[in-house]
Amino acid sequence: MNKNIIAVAVGALGFVIGLGLLGNAVKNRNKSENTISVTGLGTKQFISDLITWSGSFSKNNVDLKSAYDELALDRKVINDYLVSKGIKQNEIVFSSVDIQKQFRSYNDSNGNYVQGEFSGYNLTQKVSIESKEVAKIENLSRNITEIINRGIEFTSSSPSYFYTKLATVKQEMIASATKDAKERAEKIAENSGSRLGNLKKATMGVIQITAPNSNEDYSYGGTFNTSSKEKEASITIKLEYEVD
């Protein structure tokens, strides 16, 4: 008899506890559903303050030493020209010399490719400049034909543009995106007759840097345009709030 009473009491207690746990589960579930998720956007336009530019030049000769000596003469002409244009000597960097053997090649009577006899050496060297004087290097890159007119086989690349204060820009955009997201959340809560509660979660997107008013695609890992001097950066912040 006593055992039956105890069993019933334990069962009733378990039922009550079970109801309590179920009630808490429903309450917590409803609480988790009472949230607002919003995404804010922060953008900023700026002009690059660092530029890099490079070009390459080459010489051909059947004698390696002669080819190297001729390349050295061209290197001096190029260096003197750049210095004459106001480029600082410590901004001018010449790479190591790349040496390639050249062969006369042809197709035989059966159409097969045949590498023929040795025809000489091709030596190539690269010169590069990194400077904060953006306008000066831009002008230099556009008028590099002055080097070609001196009899040097020179190939110029397009300049690349960078910004050295990107960390500051990123902080400003994060603040702007966060403010934008919070204002959106407050508006949604207000329109639904609720009150914005505590912030539960914040997720930051990757920074995207493109040319202004361009149709460049955003990348999952972030886009970084280096071809445009003027740039537009953007970042998104996703905020999740409780709603009371």
TrEMBL record:
It comes from Chryseobacterium flavum. GO terms for biological process: DNA damage response. Pfam families: SIMPL (PF04402). PANTHER family: SLR1258 PROTEIN (PTHR34387:SF2). InterPro entries: 26kDa_periplasmic_antigen, SIMPL/DUF541, UCP029033. The chain crosses the membrane at residues 6-26. Keywords: Membrane, Transmembrane, Transmembrane helix. This is SIMPL domain-containing protein.
